[in-house]
């Protein structure tokens, strides 16, 4: 076995190279810097690692002082899923809002501006965009992270996003292959199963990925989903038929294949992360993403040693591990030298501009039109009907419109209401929440804020209660607007980012 400078043999170095671990803290720990010297080529950042743009730039500089071509990855979709602005909410409205506008040039500009900010902070790989077609409206994990339920729309905006992001010098990682949209199960918790015929998958799920590949997406992320029409035995992340046969062979993709987080229960709960990582690389994955929940040197050592042992026992061909490591290094070279589109900047307002364009405003019959609806002049009571947070989004990031309305209508008061006892399918719990909101509001005009009303029976019941007592209630839907519009004024924002809240608040206050 060849030994390299620093005492790390080629096999061990390759095993480290294919890992994309996270860590805790806002500076790089000693163990991480040491592993970069031994061959680790990628680091994943999360909200816990980011306090400010200046701190992030200092952190990425610290990493590059140890390895100048390190891939610094982040899960920055904009919209509901943000790490750059995890404590304030995103300056970008997210995919569903962009799909609602359906202006591919706007999508490209938004992605470019987001990429420009990432690049300025030293981040060069973004685990985005989501190319999933949100064909199941019950989907608990994709939803507004998708451009929409229309395949062709999702495809053209996925391509525009990839183009815009990479023109800023940041590699796109299109996800979640072969498509996570047609499921009502969250792979953070369990293994979703998609039972549709192969021809449906080809025409629907795969079309946006073909568009991403044609646009030059530098990376593709696999999904932890079981798709029996493609492989009845193993989830996509661990399936050679799907990663090598379909993605590499049939679709002709030759870039980096990254796994979704291996600590997610869909994999860890069945295979364990060590066994899962070996199977993923054997199936055709090139980079193992781990660190959303597991972020320490012990995890890195365990995965490194599992890969090395699998090669030595013959379970994992050494050539396959070497090929994977070479692809990681190739992307690192691209990312360290990628140029940005000359002179192109769209400014800090592009996200708000997109959020404003994405609004769908409906006025109750007999009350006029959106143009003639009388805006509020007195501070209202904002009743936020709050569902359990999606793990991909997290519960750190604020959402809603109250903070924005406070600026426009000082004195605005807010309260958060959820299903009593945590039973989100209980309409009775919703009635209780609605009565509590009415009591808290008193004589103030009510603005009810919901998120995916169609998926939460308690939320629909709470709205029933509010509207029966106060038909002048304004309703703001910040998820997928699947339920019929109701309320004196209904505003669908197509996302819960900070700028979506700002755009809705402007309509309510008449700004």
From TrEMBL:
A GO MF term: hydrolase activity, hydrolyzing O-glycosyl compounds
Keywords carried by this UniProt record: Glycosidase, Hydrolase, Lipoprotein
Membrane-crossing segments per the record: none
Any one of the GO BP annotations: carbohydrate metabolic process
Keyword DNA damage: no
Source taxon at top rank: Bacteria
Pfam family for this entry, one: Glyco_hydro_3
InterPro entries: GH, Glyco_hydro_3_N, Glyco_hydro_3_N_sf, NagZ_Beta-hexosaminidase
Domain Glycoside hydrolase family 3 N-terminal: 39-329
Similarity comment: family membership: Belongs to the glycosyl hydrolase 3 family.
UniProt-recorded name of the protein: Putative lipoprotein YbbD
Organism the protein comes from: Streptomyces afghaniensis 772
């Amino acid at each position: 076995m060849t030994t390299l400078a620093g005492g790390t043999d080629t096999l061990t170095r390759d095993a480290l190279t294919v890992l994309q671990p996270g860590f805790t803290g806002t500076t790089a720990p000693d163990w991480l810097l040491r592993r970069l010297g031994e061959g680790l080529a990628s680091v994943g950042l999360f909200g816990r690692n980011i306090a400010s743009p200046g701190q992030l730039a200092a952190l990425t500089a610290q990493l590059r002082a140890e390895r100048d071509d390190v891939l610094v990855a982040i899960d920055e979709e904009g919209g509901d899923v943000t790490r750059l602005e995890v404590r304030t909410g995103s300056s970008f409205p997210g995919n569903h809002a962009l799909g609602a506008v359906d202006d591919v040039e706007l999508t490209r500009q938004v992605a470019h501006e987001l990429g420009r900010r990432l690049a300025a902070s030293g981040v060069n790989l973004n685990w985005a965009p989501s190319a999933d077609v949100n064909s199941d409206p019950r989907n608990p994990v994709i939803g507004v992270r998708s451009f929409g339920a229309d395949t062709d729309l999702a495809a053209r905006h996925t391509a525009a996003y990839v183009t815009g992001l990479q023109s800023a010098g940041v590699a796109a990682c299109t996800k979640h292959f072969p498509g996570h949209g047609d499921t009502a199960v969250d792979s953070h918790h369990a293994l979703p199963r998609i039972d549709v015929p192969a021809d449906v998958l080809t025409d629907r799920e795969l079309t946006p990925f073909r568009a991403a590949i044609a646009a030059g997406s530098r990376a593709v992320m696999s999904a932890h989903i079981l798709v029996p029409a493609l492989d009845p035995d193993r989830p996509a992340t661990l399936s050679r038929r799907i990663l090598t046969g379909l993605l590499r062979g049939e679709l002709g993709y030759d870039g980096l294949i990254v796994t979704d987080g291996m600590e997610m229960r869909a994999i860890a709960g069945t295979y364990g992360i060590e066994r899962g990582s070996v199977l993923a690389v054997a199936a055709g994955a090139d980079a193992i993403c781990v660190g959303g929940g597991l972020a320490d040197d012990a995890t890195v050592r365990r995965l490194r040693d599992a890969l090395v042992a699998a090669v030595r026992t013959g379970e994992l061909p050494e050539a396959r591990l070497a090929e994977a490591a070479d692809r990681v290094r190739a992307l690192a070279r691209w990312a360290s030298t990628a140029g940005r589109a000359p002179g192109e900047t769209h400014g800090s307002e592009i996200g708000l501009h997109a959020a404003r364009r994405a609004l769908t405003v409906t006025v109750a019959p007999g009350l006029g039109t959106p143009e003639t609806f009388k805006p509020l002049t007195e501070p209202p009571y904002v009743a936020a009907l709050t569902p359990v947070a999606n793990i991909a989004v997290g519960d750190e990031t604020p959402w809603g419109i109250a903070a924005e309305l406070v600026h426009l209508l000082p004195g605005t008061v807010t309260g958060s209401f959820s299903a009593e006892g945590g039973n989100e399918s209980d309409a009775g719990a919703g009635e209780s929440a609605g009565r509590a909101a009415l009591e808290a509001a008193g004589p103030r005009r009510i603005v009810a804020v919901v998120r995916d009303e169609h998926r939460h029976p308690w939320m629909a019941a709470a709205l029933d209660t509010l509207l029966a007592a106060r038909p002048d209630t304004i309703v703001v839907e910040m998820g997928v607007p699947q339920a019929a519009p109701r309320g004196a004024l209904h505003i669908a924002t197509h996302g819960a980012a900070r700028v979506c809240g700002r755009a809705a608040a402007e309509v309510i206050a008449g700004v």
